[in-house]
Design a protein that fits this description.
The structure holds 2 protein chains of 2 kinds. By secondary structure, chain A is an all-beta fold. Chain A has strands at 3-7, 10-12, 18-25, 34-39, 45-51, 58-60, 68-73, 78-83, 92-99, 107-110, 114-118. In chain A, a hairpin with a 4-residue loop joins β7 (68-73) and β8 (78-83). In chain B, the strands form 2 sheets. In chain B, strands 2, 4, 5, 6, 9, 10 and 11 form a 7-stranded mixed sheet that branches. Classes of the chains: A mainly beta, B mainly beta.
Chain lengths: 120, 106
């Protein structure tokens, strides 16, 4: 059974940094692309970033490009999201999601999410 | 960027009702469309991909149709577990979600 568990959320000041992590199990991690999706309180879903199975290709939404960095450790089955220059509007629940069997597929498994609050 | 627009934003219905949600893309996305269900406080769950293919384990009362720019999600007979928010997502050009449709109890 696929399991994804995010961690690292909490309260951060505007301009600060934070790293979110996602621990994966139940599938061959290095053969699937992974993504981060966020949801601001009471709002809809927003794709944030994706990384290929080998970790050599990364993609970002315009809203986070240049501030966020996605990476993965295939030896540890973990996915990270390094977030710098955080803004109040980055406040959201951040979900880790597994992409389907082909690059560009929709997201077929999700973690429960971790809440990041950016506030002074 | 491909924009996705869902209608309605909120839908009031009763158990047993047939429910239809519409999703429109700002440009053609062929059939690269998925539907998700999200219950309050939970992660989204993939229901349908490639516009009409049911994800494994999803009840057959859910169905999807459409291509190009116009798509629909239909729930044939609404069950108590189906009261939730539904999102469409295009994956033709990166990934973009619609704003969501909340299905609430009438």
């Amino acid at each position: 059974e696929v399991q994804l568990v995010e961690s690292g959320g909490g309260l951060v000041q505007p301009g600060g940094s934070r790293t979110l992590s996602c621990a994966a199990s139940g599938f061959t991690f290095n053969t699937y692309a992974m993504s981060w999706v966020r949801q601001a309180p009471g709002k809809g879903l927003e794709w944030v970033s994706s990384v290929s199975g080998r970790g050599d290709s990364t993609y970002y939404a315009e809203s986070v490009k240049g501030r966020f960095t996605v990476s993965r450790d295939n030896s540890e089955n973990t996915l990270d999201l390094q977030m710098n220059r955080l803004r109040v509007e980055d406040t959201a629940v951040y979900f880790c999601a597994k992409m389907g069997p082909n690059w560009g597929s929709p997201f077929d498994s999700w973690g429960p999410g971790t809440l990041l609050t950016v506030s002074s | 960027d491909v924009q996705m627009t869902q209608s309605p934003s909120t839908l009031s219905a009763s158990v047993g009702d047939r429910v239809t949600i519409t999703c429109r893309a700002s440009q053609s996305i062929s059939r690269w469309l998925a539907w998700y269900q999200q219950r309050p406080g939970k992660a989204p769950k993939l229901l349908i991909y490639l516009a009409s293919t049911l994800q494994s384990g999803v009840p057959s009362r859910f169905s999807g149709s459409g291509s190009g720019t116009e798509f629909t999600l239909t729930i044939a007979s609404l069950q108590p577990d189906d009261f939730a928010t539904y999102y469409c997502q295009q994956y033709n050009d990166y990934w973009t979600f619609g704003q969501g449709t909340k299905v609430e109890i009438k």
